UniProtKB/TrEMBL annotation:
InterPro entries: KR_dom, NAD(P)-bd_dom_sf, Sc_DH/Rdtase_CS, SDR_fam. Belongs to the short-chain dehydrogenases/reductases (SDR) family. Residues 5-185 form the Ketoreductase domain. It comes from Maritimibacter harenae. Keywords: Oxidoreductase. This is SDR family NAD(P)-dependent oxidoreductase. GO terms for cellular component: membrane.
Amino acid sequence: MSGPRRILITGAGSGLGLELARQLATPGVTFIICGRRLSALDAAAAELRALGAEVETSAVDLTDPAARDAWVATASAGTIDLAILNAAQFGGRGRDGMLERPDVAARMIDTNLAAPVALALRLSDQMRAAGQGTLLFISSLGAFAVQADAPTYSATKAGLTAFARSLREDLGPDGVRVVIAHPGHMETAQTEVHRGPLPGLMPVKDAARVILAGLEAGRSEIDFPRHLRLGLRLQALLPWKVQARINRGLRFWVDDGEDDRT
């Protein structure tokens, strides 16, 4: 993919964030990446440098406003061509049948919604002033799905999509592009703890390829697998009790290793 020279990625130490970086890595590209685990970031940086890219790493807890703001202020001191807001946390009903604890739900909201919103607002100011740049939000098909076993996760993704769509209308006239990816299930750490059906499960390498192809093609929203997105559109037209009956076969729990959530 040609174009962006300075690329910021959150959650780049593993999973989709790392795979997107791999496929974007080429001589002349500089990555500004962050994650929670420095060891994973160092390994990712070594791999990306071997592909010819330059890499700046920071271990940042994006739920810490001071640390997050300091990182993005340093990162945006230079022009950012592409910012991929990818970091997210997954959680839901546990093995004991209970939904996530309130503190876990609050952290998911901070990680999946509050952090990318805050980062995007700061980055959008810089991009607006430069008259160029792309913000790529990694949302989820969960933004459109009724997931009784992961209500907080679904809410954060729905909120992220709503925010990004609103930001797109505001930034468009100033030359700043906003793109939203809505992937389905991918072979990442999230699906490793998901105990239940995984329709449309896709290797993360293929998911990254779909996202970058959509980005290159100029799409504003990249939804896949497409047949699942169509199914969710049609299901949303039905009464909620009918939707609930359809969803029974997709119920799941999250194997987070916790036996007692009280």
